[in-house]
Amino acid sequence: MPHTTDALERADLLAGLDPLPLPHALLDVLRAGLGSDPDRPDARLRRVPSAGALHPVQVHLDQHRDGRAETVRWYPHGGLVPLSTRQATPPERVDIVLVAAPARTIAKYGDRSLTPVVLDVGYAFSALLHAAAAHGLELSPAPGFRTPDDGGAALAALRVGAPVHRPVPVGRPEPAGGRPGGLVEAALHELAQHPITSPLPTSEVSCEAIATRRSAPLEELAYGFDLDNALSFFQDGLPRQFHSGVTAHVATAKGVFTWREGHWKRVSHRDERPGLAARAAHQRQLAGVAALVLFTAHPAAALGGADYLASRFAIAHAGYSLCVRAAGWGLGARPIGGWSGPPAPGTWDGGEAIVHAVALGGTGTEPAR
What we know:
There is one protein chain. The chain has a 6-stranded antiparallel sheet with strand order 8-7-6-9-11-10. Strands 3-2-1-4-5 form a 5-stranded antiparallel sheet. It is 26% helix and 21% strand. Helix 1 crosses helix 3 (114-135) and helix 3 crosses helix 8. It contains 8 helices and 11 strands. With 369 residues, it is an alpha+beta fold. The chain has helices at 24-34, 103-109, 114-135, 182-191, 207-212, 231-237, 273-279, 305-329; strands at residues 57-65, 68-74, 80-82, 93-100, 153-160, 247-252, 255-260, 263-268, 291-297, 331-336, 353-362.
């Protein structure tokens, strides 16, 4: 396996440390999928869209050599920090482990933090898959990956190199739920008992589309999107059938349509955008966006841990796919979190909870195909 001699672009993060021998292709994928925005290095904005959580993902790279594992932490600003003993030889394989880091989000949102944290980890997972596909790096399932030494909740893992079949790791004890955020941390550790360890089907996008994706301001998404002429955009960006319990809808000025077997079926002739905007926290501009793709699902209380995590990752994966494909089409996109409770049963979404949404519209930018 080829390895790099200049793995660290930011010497200020690791002054005096030797470069880590990681594959060039892996570093390219990490920078493209999860790195900071090179056009705004001072702001340290990340390429990954967000459902509203505050930097909730840690990326651990477990390098395996001669039956032993070494863990390094990868930062979106381009640096790697060793978390265990350093090695000088290239690894036989590398596991990419996504660990939930909910502290900042809990400090702001308290016990409402679970959904945005899980969705943001799902967005990071999807960003890895799309970047790997665009750069030609094969990722495989990672059963039996190494759990974090600090007790963090590892929600997903992917492997670079030949798959090795091992038992799924036993999770750590749940933290107490009495202190602020304890319920969220306990839920994340419960979800970590059922981690996502296999790649999901990924739509084909270019490296340029990944690099140029930005979350557009809502006021820029009020025009230029014709649902009738964008079916192929959705057919390649949404699965024909979602994970059980997840449904996609799109709300436009012409009504609401539900995604079924690769096509949109009208379920409401009313313009539901004003009502939807009223249910989105502090985002009243949604009433004027050209198209609002909504992902609904059963509430968490109706699902077990494995189904909950799989369904939320499916939503985040579809959301990222739409966002990055929008860049390829010259469209604008913005993830929308912060949704309140479900409508009355019998309405167009069947009383399911809105988990997440993506606003779409034309911005006048050139396609990045």
